[in-house]
Specification:
There is one protein chain. With 108 residues, this protein is mainly α. It has a domain of 60 residues. The protein is 49% helix and 0% strand. The protein has five helices and no strands. The longest helix is centred in the N-terminal third of the chain and has 18 residues. The protein is extended. It comes from Pararge aegeria aegeria. This is Jg6796 protein.
Amino acid sequence: MLGVSLRDIIRNDVIRRRTKVTDIAHRISKFKWQWAGHVCRRTDGRWGSRVLELRPRIGKRSVGRPPARWTDDLKKVPGSDWMRKAAVRVRWRDLGKAYVQQWTLVGC
């Protein structure tokens, strides 16, 4: 496709720029952010937003580090009140750009 080999030592971002292929981590983080905002803005009474904030505690806590939840990395950019911030679509989009940039740099 490009006529390059591993010996050429070309960085991935250079190859993506040449082939015009988007980074999959960028797309995944963008879609995750958009879907979370969409679910939080729904007002029809479906259970999606309630599941996002669910913290089930049945029985004793297990030993060790608690498992990572789907919303844990969403809270890093806007803070713990991210569901309230998702209600304002314009602000949520601005925060989304920061989230996608942070997510693709760190590679969560």
